[in-house]
């Protein structure tokens, strides 16, 4: 099993492979666990979870979370979006998704 990073901080990052922003929630070796963010109500016939507020402060369009935590190699992620934030209600939703993933 790969060693977990002690100094890991969750962050918004661009996933270059899927060309979408993501919220990276964990790192295990060279693999990130993340939640995808999109403008689409559905992805692959699966309903996405609506957010009350878009985490991108420069975008007023509706934003959605992918309904599950996914994994991808670190090399597929680009720059961080340091000015992005979840609203208070959306933060609670994300926290529940992370907690459910840990079960």
Question: Can you describe this structure?
Answer:
The chain is mostly beta strands. It has one domain (11-102). The chain has one helix at residues 88-102; strands at 11-15, 20-28, 31-38, 42-43, 46-47, 49-50, 64-65, 70-73, 77-80. Strands 1, 2, 3, 6, 7, 8 and 9 form a 7-stranded antiparallel sheet that branches. Strands 4-5 form a two-stranded antiparallel sheet. The chain is globular.
Mean pLDDT: 92
How many strands, what sense, and barrel or not for the largest sheet?
Answer: 7 strands, antiparallel
| Proportion of helical residues | 10-25%
Judging from the principal axes of the Cα atoms, what is the shape?
globular
What percentage of the residues does DSSP assign to strands (E)? 35-45%
What's the total count of β strands?
Answer: 9
In angstroms, what separates the terminal alpha carbons?
18 Å
Judged by helices, strands and strand pairing, the structural class is: mainly beta
* Rg over CA atoms: 13 Å
Structural domain count: 1
Q: Could you state the order of secondary-structure elements as H and E? A: EEEEEEEEEH
Helix count from the secondary structure assignment: 1
Task: Report low-confidence residues grouped into runs of 5 or more.
Answer: none
Write the layout of secondary structure elements.
Elements: E1 11-15, E2 20-28, E3 31-38, E4 42-43, E5 46-47, E6 49-50, E7 64-65, E8 70-73, E9 77-80, H1 88-102
Antiparallel strand pairs: 1-2, 1-9, 2-3, 3-7, 3-8, 4-5, 6-7
């Amino acid at each position: 099993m790969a060693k977990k990073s002690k100094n890991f901080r969750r962050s918004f990052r661009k996933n270059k492979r899927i060309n979408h922003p993501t919220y990276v929630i964990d790192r295990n070796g060279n693999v990130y666990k993340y939640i995808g963010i999109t403008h689409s109500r559905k992805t692959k016939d699966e309903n996405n979870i609506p957010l009350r507020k878009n985490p991108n402060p420069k975008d007023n369009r509706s934003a959605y979370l992918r309904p599950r935590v996914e994994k991808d190699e670190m090399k597929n992620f680009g720059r961080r979006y340091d000015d992005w934030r979840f609203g208070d209600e959306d933060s609670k939703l994300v926290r529940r998704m992370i907690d459910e993933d840990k079960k």
